[in-house]
Design brief:
Blueprint (H helix, E strand, L loop, with lengths): L6 E5 L1 H19 L4 E7 L3 H9 L5 E11 L5 E9 L9 E9 L3 H13 L4 E9 L12 E5 L5 E2 L15 E4 L2
Parallel strand pairs: 2-3, 2-5, 5-6, 6-7
Antiparallel strand pairs: 1-9, 3-4, 8-9
Helix pairs in contact: 1-2
The structure holds inosinic acid (IMP) and magnesium ion (MG).
Length: 176
Amino acid sequence: MNRADNIKQFISEEQIQSRIKELAAKLNEIYKDEELYLVGVLKGSVMFMTDLAKRLTMPVKMEFVRLSSYGSGTTSAGKINAVDLSLPDLGGKNVLIVEDIIDTGNTAKFLVDFLNQKFKLKDLKFCSLLDKKARRVNDMQPDYYCFDVEDKYLVGYGMDIDGKYRNLPYIGYIEV
Ligand code: IMP
Ligand code: MG
């Protein structure tokens, strides 16, 4: 018996992988042979980042930062907690931030501002698997994303509730 029984599947593993394949093809076309630094936001982006990275053909380097905005509930605290922002010198580099989901946009804004202040990047883009536009509080938009989602709390494929369900290969919501 699967302990994720109460999760209603919303985006299947096949749909996720197929959109990632399309996104990777687009990025391969855009960056061609230029080196690209992927900067993933732990822990939610880890599944997306690794699946995407496997399909990229340019020289890729992978870095991670650890930020938190959500506490143990499902409402954004609005304030970003920078748990670990240690990165190599990204001056002159192409950087692609990789996120699981952009919701209020606070995390995206924090990281884009941080990277732009700290480094003189060659190029900075923001990529998110999911875009939950309904709750945006600023003008952040992902440069690339795979799915629009409605205002529902989602879990799976990296996303958690109280630390659980990150390992699901699909995305779902908790059926009440
Ligand atoms: P934002 O700062 O409000 O845009 O939220 C960004 C972060 O909140 C994401 O990286 C997720 O970690 C988390 N988050 C937002 N919506 C959801 C959701 O529906 N499920 C799980 N995590 C979420
Ligand atoms: Mg996240």
